[in-house]
Amino acid sequence: MIKFFLMVNKQGQTRLSKYYEHVEINKRTLLETEVIKSCLSRSNEQCSFIEFKDFKLIYRQYAALFIVVGVNDTENEMAIYEFIHNFVEVLDEYFSRVVNNV
Amino acid sequence: MVVPSSKLQDLIEEIRGAKTQAQEREVIQKECAHIRASFRDGDPLHRHRQLAKLLYVHMLGYPAHFGQMECLKLIASPRFTDKRVGYLGAMLLLDERQDAHLLITNSIKNDLSQGIQAVQGLALCTLSTVGSAEMCRDLATEVEKLLLQPGPYVRKKAVLTAVHIIRKVPELSNIFLPPCAQLLHERHHGVLLGTITLITELCERSPAALKHFRKVVPQLVQILWTLVTTGYSTEHSISGVSDPFLQVQILRLLRILGRNHEESSETMNDLLAQVATNTDTSRNAGNAVLFETVLTIMDIRSVAGLRVLAVNILGRFLLNSDKNIRYVALTSLLRVVQSDHSAVQRHRPTVVECLREPDASLSRRALELSLALVNSSNVRAMTQELQSFLESCPPDLRSDCASGILLAAERFAPTKRWHIDTILRVLTMAGTHVRDDAVANLTQLIGGAQELHAYSVRRLYSALAEDISQQPLVQVAAWCIGEYGDLLLEGSCEETEPLQVEEEEVLALLEKVLQSHMSLPATRGYALTALMKLSTRLRGDNNRIRQVVSVYGSCLDVELQQRAVEYNALFQKYDYMRAAILEKMPLVERGGTQDEEAKESKEAQHSEAAVIPTEPQTSKLLDLLDLLDGTSGAAQPPPPLEPSSEGTSVHLLDLPCVSPAPASIPNLKVFEREGLQLTLSFVRPPGTPALLLIMVTAINTSEADVTHFVCQAAVPKSFQLQLQAPSGDTVPAQGGLPMTQLLRILNPKKAPLRLKLRLTYNHFGQSVQEIFEVNNLPVETWQ
């Protein structure tokens, strides 16, 4: 099950956050900073799946934007990876050149 | 004056134009004031615009709770633009903890039954996002009605709302069971995907639903089959795979249904084989489907051939250059290694390759998997690989790797020498990261391998000479040098190169360890004890050792100081005992090494207190017991006992059966009948003035045995009497072994002693009972 969905820019500012399970407001910011830190510190050679507390994080980078999805254990990481790409493609079709405007 | 309200786009431009955070905040605050005023005025026309701006501001992180009631008003309005923003606001601003959310239940109900698809869609969306348990209960039937509506747009949303309702209120799942079967016949992939998710949720939550849905396995198989075998369809194809998301969902549901169920698993076998072999693996989508297939095969009761196929697919993933795929392959292999060990063994070389990955999460997985793959046949090669990994791995993996190697070595070591070598190498490389009991394990291991003593002490000595910073290594080395120092100095050992070691060098090394600031207090303790042991093992004189020991007698560390003082005492007063105390240690039980160390120091402590060592004492006690059992109450206590009772701590002698001190009270014969004589002997132990010990001795000089002899005693109330168990209940005939029984009488008030005895026994075929009071009790018994 997807727990949360984040869109973060390279400076670490959250552009979009959607939580599918209730998390307190102040805990959200804490969670986001930690997640962003672990994603931004990865190099290109490392794989896109990170283990973080009791979630698995799957992230994908598009130019200056990181899309991070947190899932629980039962989810197929590669399917989510594909899903993120699908999402971006849909936004792209609908809004055109979505990545560069954020 | 009504200020014309700006549109959302203007507001966004304004906010973007602000150069600093403070400026942005100013703009927003001004706008919020406007919005608040507008809400107060209740302008229906522009309300939606105001709320839209408020929602944008909320997204940036500013408080927006004053818009909640406006959402309700907007939702209730008949216009679509109002409803749209209102529902959006409700989803963002209202949640279960706000009391206002229940108020929208009615609006949602009305909207659901309205019949306009867009509106129904909005309502369903809101319900599935923020629906609380009460709301769900109220609206479940409405949602169920919508499940079978014509028009996939509403049905899709209704199915997803149903999923949410079930998550919130599992008891309502019964409502949604019947429509599912029909929904599976859908053509529209969106509805189909939703249905599969719904069924998955139902099955996960209730075993009854699981049984119910096993019937649809053939149908699911059919759907997946069509998906896989149909050609390219523009609507659903992602990089060549036809709707991978749906495929993955179906596979997951099949996994849940097939788990532990033979029949369903059989139906799925062909399909899974087909999917596994026919999916295009050049792109990520195909790999995702393949991965899910592998997981499913592993989980259900599949045939062996299929499982091997799955493991091979995982092996193929490992060779792929894409990191992500390698990662999932390693994770799944780890899950599978317990059940399909031999299949995974075939891929061992690839796994070991992955150890060299620069990526931390990959190498961690590879490490875990390699450790799981070690068995008795490949242990040498594997430990080799793991050790080279240990040298280069990142620090957080070091301790796991070290403990893993040690564990594997323990389980599969082919020879003791190899085992010791391996542990030695691990300690040298990653000494600080090993677990605490590694030291204990190693010392126990070395202690047990007698033939390797010389070899190990040499290796350890050379390792120590090079580097004294790795604490566990230093501890083990110090212990070994102490124990087997004589072997070290002997000269030759055929298994290592000849190493000529001088006594002075050894002592110098140990002193270096003692003085180094890198050594932990425990290590220093080991080194000091080792020095002491060497004092008996080395042939030269002990001046240097004595010096060191006396220096540490004033050390600040309490443990070291105590040890040094005791060892000093050993040198000075108890030199004759030094050799005995510092003998080679016997092999200890697992976990006993620490106890032995403690026992050693406790023994030294005893010698400090100037008490006779416990060994001779135990033997003397046995003598005493023999005496008590043997001849009748001798007035003279056994002579060897005298020195022990002479004024040293009595507490050491608190063993059962306290030894009586020399007493001068004469014995008393109290009873005689037909050859059976009863004698009392008295002892007053000097340490306890109120205590009187009476030994009752029965001798039989007649020709028949006395059997079932029971002696009972009674004393006045101010006394306390304790009868200990008699030595037997038969007094053999003709002066055979007498029967004895000990009576303990406590007389705190020093009152005159009166004693009544009752005897029952069988003699000459008759049972006899005698009760009498003991007269003529000597005064010394109670004064």
TrEMBL record, chain A:
Superkingdom, taxonomy of origin: Eukaryota
Membrane topology: Peripheral membrane protein
Pfam annotation, one family: Clat_adaptor_s
The UniProt record lists the keyword Transport: yes
All residue ranges annotated as the AP complex mu/sigma subunit domain in the record: 1-99
Keyword Ligase part of the UniProt annotation: no
GO cellular component, one term: cytoplasm
Compartments, record wording: Endomembrane system
InterPro entries hit by this protein: AP_complex_ssu, AP_mu_sigma_su, Longin-like_dom_sf
Keyword line: Membrane, Protein transport, Transport
Purpose: Component of the adaptor protein complex 4 (AP-4). Adaptor protein complexes are vesicle coat components involved both in vesicle formation and cargo selection. They control the vesicular transport of proteins in different trafficking pathways. AP-4 forms a non clathrin-associated coat on vesicles departing the trans-Golgi network (TGN) and may be involved in the targeting of proteins from the trans-Golgi network (TGN) to the endosomal-lysosomal system.
Family: Belongs to the adaptor complexes small subunit family.
Complex and partners: Adaptor protein complex 4 (AP-4) is a heterotetramer composed of two large adaptins (epsilon-type subunit AP4E1 and beta-type subunit AP4B1), a medium adaptin (mu-type subunit AP4M1) and a small adaptin (sigma-type AP4S1).
Protein's name in the database: AP complex subunit sigma
Species per Swiss-Prot/TrEMBL record: Neovison vison
TrEMBL record, chain B:
Places the protein is found: Cytoplasmic vesicle membrane; Endomembrane system; Golgi apparatus
PROSITE patterns: GAE
Membrane topology: Peripheral membrane protein
Keyword entries, A-Z: Cytoplasmic vesicle, Golgi apparatus, Membrane, Protein transport, Transport
One Gene Ontology cellular component annotation held by this UniProt entry: synapse
InterPro entries tied to this protein: Adaptor_Complx_Large_Subunit, AP1_complex_gsu, ARM-like, ARM-type_fold, Clathrin/coatomer_adapt-like_N, Clathrin_a/b/g-adaptin_app_Ig, Clathrin_app_Ig-like_sf, GAE_dom
GO biological process: intracellular protein transport; vesicle-mediated transport
Region Disordered: start-end pairs: 591-613
Domain GAE: 663-778
Similarity comment: Belongs to the adaptor complexes large subunit family.
Designated name of the protein: AP-1 complex subunit gamma
Lineage of the organism: Eukaryota, Metazoa, Chordata, Craniata, Vertebrata
Gene: AP1G2
